[in-house]
Amino acid sequence: MGIVLVTRQGCHLCEAALGLLQELGVHPELADVDADDELHRFYDFRVPVVLIDGAVVAEGKINRAHLVAALASQHAAD
To answer: Number of structural domains, the chain?
Structure first.
């Protein structure tokens, strides 16, 4: 299962999302929305965005319950 957190520097919601993921034992690949034109086109005002295997499972103000459910459903599909 490939997990990517689309983020940007100075984004407090991004820092909170990373903290939640790490609390859940997930260490995602970080992708800077401002360093990649395609990511910027898709996710500029949506960060943070959590992608699992390329699919958006959470974005914006991410809460723990939603993230746990998304990770569990993805894990069950594997």
So the answer is: 1
